[in-house]
Write a structure and sequence with these properties.
Length: 216
Amino acid sequence: LAGGIILGVALWLRHDSQTTNILYLQLGDKQAPNTFYVGIYILIAVGAVMMFVGFLGCYGAIQESQCLLGTFFTCLVILFACEVAAGIWGFVNKDQIAKDVKQFYDQAFQQALMAEPDMNNGKAVVKTFHETLDCCGPDNPIGINTLLWKKDLCPRKDSILDNFIEPPSCHKKIDELFSGKLYLIGIAAIVVAVIMIFEMILSMVLCCGIRNSSVY
């Protein structure tokens, strides 16, 4: 069940409309940074393997097989080690993910302001960012023709009142998007780690109990 829940959360994060709209973008021959998906793929793998290993542990407990329970315990130790390594990697790179995406956006924004629209697709990339995240421009937009590029690149609001409200910068929205997603990944990883620790303890207790049983 825990493996299924982790797999479901990971698949939801993988196919979330906001992240997929942004991370599938291509600026010329340059692809948007996909570092974020590394953590998602690790979660998907852990969830799928946990489901299989959980079935192995259940079957081993029903059959009272020390061999299967020992294999179950070994698989859990390997999964736990992989998750700790992935957690350390994610913690080290958590700020880099948003930074890479912001750099990609800034490059697209600079190209969108250039006079050669046929030479790049920067304007389309920037508009996708603005529409997906409901934002407008970087933190420090270029002052020249500010009203012109805002009218051209930023999403138009339906109500008159919304047009007078200054939309948030895309840098801020990118930070919020990935910090929220990484927060969910962190919670899922902690839940998995706690469940794994209990599984390892209980499998060893059961294995030792079978070994000391009078039946054997």
